[in-house]
Specification:
EC 3.5.3.11 (chains A, B, C, D, E, F), 18% strand, homohexamer, Ureohydrolase_dom_sf (chains A, B, C, D, E, F), 284 residues, alpha/beta, Arginase, Chain A, metal-binding (chains A, B, C, D, E, F), two-stranded antiparallel sheet, 10 strands
């Protein structure tokens, strides 16, 4: 008798019950302002992850020693943004309630809002570490409150001042930078300077870690909706991920891979490797 | 003194006042179910139309003899579908009220609903000629009533039975084909058989003509969200357009070019040539 | 509790026990003489099949009414050709022994040899219907007996004269055409002329049906290792598949999709639609 | 002792002395009005021709039985158009003086003018058979007399009325079609209708045969500078080539493959197959 | 009443009269020696610039505060190089005579010669700052004096020794490097070392600043005719631009984006960001 | 009389007799585990090398002063791995026996084994310098001993402990790293640290230098079968090559360019430049 075809991200094949972290995909990109396609990220990452090794020589750890379950993709409705956020929140809540750590693969950055809502419901003292090229602090985008360009502003409405730490930022409207400077978020431009200090200050506060992959320089990550030159290097990002994961990350995501814009496949391979390193760095 | 840079679709450079037809772009694709990117169509078509001649040897007519004004693209909000439809309806209404014929370049197929609303407001006896690979008759798509897969169903809610004529259809859910057969629309599968008779029956009834370019075979039009093999040929389409335009077309659109999926540029060139032939065929 | 992520080809989700046909992928392309990449076909087809409907308006049948199980891909060793053929033969034999019909997704065309061996073991009176642009009748290719350019010659060694019927052939060495003419195979060049007569003659003989997708014209199927202009049309192919499936097909395959060579995705969409029509046409 | 690396188009490996036809490449595209890149055609065709067989089942002939020498590419100066035409004329003259038939691979269509000059010098009664999507009859293009859009007009200045026969034409300025109708050339629009009669009338007149590959439909030949939908099919073109080659072709060329615009490689494969069929059809 | 469709580079929408800087495109690439396509740069940059913000966090300045007019593209004749240079010179002269700063978007690098002629006519003491991967100092290229590989040599003929400062150079014929060393130009290989000193020495001398974007490493800028590994980084380039703009730049250009060779769009995004930073850095 | 078309890598046009180094291509990729296509490397590199200069400003040397012969590509049989290695060994042996230095262009990395065998036969004291992203130390890959993932392990079986020095390694199975640490090879992870010391220790020992180009970061070299982020920079690689070539390199290769995966052409340009610098650095 033959078995059905179970597809998981590289090495994430333990059972749900014993899993400590749970992957899920959120294939949604309806509010993308420039180039869509982030909907394809989770599916393509699973398919291409078999080109990667489970072992990390950076960390000397192996995914085969981790307990991660891949629960597949949500089926989300393009065009009904509020419902999409509810579906994401429900999945993240289930995982959190079962005492596991949700790891979401976007989709565009707006999907983060659904997962942040779930984490905030469980951890009222939630803080956010945000890696990105873009501020994402607009109050609205052409009138829409629910937009990938406004997602951190929406998170701020939930969490309030002093809870959000942004790194790598190098693009935004002038008013967004000014709004951040008024004390609403801690915006660290261009790179990861200040991250060590931030992590020390956060001590054991619960952290939602959202990683917009376009924080990377587009030379190594061209496959994204809004490529923005002048980004951080791959090894810099790995170091920063390890720093964040020394903190108490309770939920996290990576987002904004738009694989069709990089037909060399490198952007997908990079996203897979970042996810492997993230999964190996988390305190499970 | 130097002039600003006015960009129009090939040869569509008369003034608004004297224009008989008015182009506008509706760059929207948030409800696309499979592969997005139709938002880029109007902009790319304007840019690439200079590779085409204004003269048609098929019709022995020249765009330089036509009075068409290109009013550019609407600025639409990705993620707020209802507002998008209102914006489209407003633009189409303005053009209709000024006694001109609106010619819309989508975007995904849902944009048609905004323009149909405007045309229906002016012409309560409106009929729809629909060229497409897909039925677009779903009642909803994953719960969303406003979806490109449901656009003709929404138009039917406005117009009622016996007003919609579909040609070239070769894909859909079984229930959609059955629903059509119950008499709600006249669904002609696979090709343009029956079009001549339809046009004769319609006599001088006001027609909204919506042309989903994926009615073409993907060999000649791969650059679309949901390519569906077994489509009509390019010359077949030109003939069918000429047949429809002998009727009283009061508004029209072409849609679903997703140019990034065809990096040879052929799909864009085809869309431009179809638009030229449409503009030259309309009774202005 | 969340479920693992089962990926199947569109609508092929019944259990193994009740299945009448069983899919499996054979991702192998080591002997490809010109452009490799057919190894990616089965995986990409599963991923992209969700862009297709389960319902066929050509046949008025629906995959949801069929009992097909997708057993995923074999794990094959690039570079050890003989072992690969053994692995394929084993999988096909298991399915045949369980009284089900194996449907293999290549891979390059050599994979057919493994499945033909299995079918021949069960059906000594086996006949082969072969759709292809290429003769595949070489005795060897640069010395290699096991090559995708020699696969039908190898099948002939097993089955003998008068058992193999080739259609659509438009490329090969002069000596291959001559060898066929000597009575070894029935080679019908260029198109499907003679297929109806062939199927009538075969009556209820057991048939292995091997469909090299490059029989299609490269305008509609560019994503293949050796594109060969002058091929058959998509609707011609559907008709021919239906003709073959009126016979007693006991095993079959489609092969030679090399998806990376067609970045528009059309070739993959075509392969998926061909497979859907094949699954709906088989006498199950 | 090892040999140097001689690269020829498929099977064109006889010595110069015994050759009856001589290939050469003219990599030039400086006057291309829309999308350049035809400069890469000859080099890419040589490299990719090994994916093709030397045997033609259409003609039952084999390139290994033909005496064709490939003399490689001219080194042409981008930006100095007149010198380029002189260099081409010199190469074609050498081949003609040696009693052989020159077969040129463009390059953009303007290169034809150099070879026509050479052929006209030897054959004052020269006639031209011209396959193309475009008229190429402009008197000038933005002031330039030497432009690929004016090449047939320039040839006409040399040859005069009644010498040029155009087929497949479907694009041009209105004035170009009118100028042709005034009796300067015999312009057959859209397809090859009238070719049989033309060839009969030409009897044994010396013919320069220039084949702009964009006469093909862009579904099968997207890799060209100015793709123009509505073209002829591949098998139609093969038939037309055979008809022309029954006449007394004294020199010929194929041109306007721009391989980078078709990353599937199909356009290059098509060009190679067309060249093979042309070489096998010529009266050598 | 609807307005015509005015397309400008991001935020360059003031009127001509009040403008301090004036953009224009020079879409020409006929003398490109390797891969053409720079003709598409200006048009594609305008279209894609809407993916960029007007605000620069590097400079804390905003394009909305600058007075820049975009006068669109010149209509240049491919194949008539001398006329092209005259047309460019005329446009640049008009802008200079009106007391504004011309900012040209190439096209291949030869277009610089036309603008340098105009600037030299007004500023006989003109100096040139040249960023490039290539020397561009050939006396001729295959006999052509007007070639993109000879453009700086042509500028030197106008300006004489000691007026030209080259940075980032990492490719050229041995004789070109030797010729520079003889004192004709100040050639700084590989990077921007020496730029600070150069700018200090130039004091308030009038400067023509020509920026061949292939000075960037091809990892971040693959979309160019002759990619040359080992280039400068993006942030290095921004710093160097700011240094140059502290001097008295009287005219400038960026050139050699060939967008079709980078289908990820990153090269175009980089060119747009470089132009934004240049416009924000100029002393207006 | 016209000459045949000899194609060589840039400037490698001396006669075999006088040559000091001899190039040959080994177009084979049948054992590639992830993405094939390295078979195309040597052919594409020859074709594209004309976009490069023969002069190196890094070394102030010129290929026109070197005596290198390009003997073209071997004709290898896809699917018969052992025969392929014999053919490669034979070619390398011929060159070595003639007192020249073989420089092989792969192909996947397994081709190295054939050349190492030849070099080891002549130099029993052979050492290997290995640049790569991957360990290539597997004992087998899915059972195959002859796999590109096992090539260095096979070389070790020949040479024994202490003979192999690996640099830049950042991917592999955990057991491979452990096996290396047991003293079988000197594995230097991530970069070239330790290379200077290694070269000093090797003194004048005979060296086989194998350079898997995927040691480069995929930002600058995306066109390879298994891109692995975090690689070395281009200038770092040039420096390391110069260091190795100060030693006594008796044979060498570069491998794993898979050009179709980088349609910008940058990866090919990089490979050509690396080969130029290697040829200029060797002690000839």
């Amino acid at each position: 008798m033959l078995n059905p075809n179970v597809e998981t991200f590289l090495g994430c094949d333990c059972g749900y019950e014993e899993a400590e972290a749970v992957l899920f995909g959120a294939p949604f990109d309806s509010t993308t302002s420039y180039r869509p396609g982030a909907r394809f990220a989770s599916r393509v990452m699973r398919a291409e992850s078999y080109g990667l090794e489970t072992y990390s020589p950076y960390l000397d750890r192996d995914l085969t020693d981790r307990k991660v379950f891949d629960s597949g993709d949500l089926e989300l409705c393009f065009g009904d943004t509020e419902q999409v956020l509810l579906d994401i929140e429900a999945r993240a809540s289930t995982i959190l309630e079962d005492g596991k750590l949700p790891v979401m693969i976007g989709g565009e950055h707006l999907v983060t809002l659904g997962a942040v809502r779930a984490a905030f419901a469980k951890y009222p003292d939630l803080h956010v570490i945000h890696f990105d090229a873009h501020t994402d602090l607009r109050d609205d985008y052409l009138g829409a409150k629910l937009s990938h360009a406004a997602v951190i502003r929406r998170a701020w409405e939930l969490l309030g001042d002093g809870r959000i730490y942004q790194f790598g930022i190098r693009s935004g409207d002038r008013s967004e930078f000014q709004w951040a400077k008024e004390g609403h978020t801690a915006l660290h431009p261009f790179d990861f300077e200040g991250l060590a200090q931030t992590m020390e200050n956060l001590s054991d506060k619960p952290i939602y870690f959202t990683l917009d992959l376009d924080v990377l320089d587009p030379s190594i990550f061209p496959g994204t909706g809004t490529p923005e030159a002048g980004g951080v290097g791959f090894l810099d990002l790995l170091r920063a991920i390890r720093q964040v994961c020394k903190g108490r990350v309770v939920a996290c995501d990576i987002n904004e891979l738009s694989p069709h814009y990089d037909q060399s496949g490198v952007s997908t391979a990079v996203a897979c490797k970042v996810l492997r390193e993230l999964l190996l760095s988390l305190r499970l």
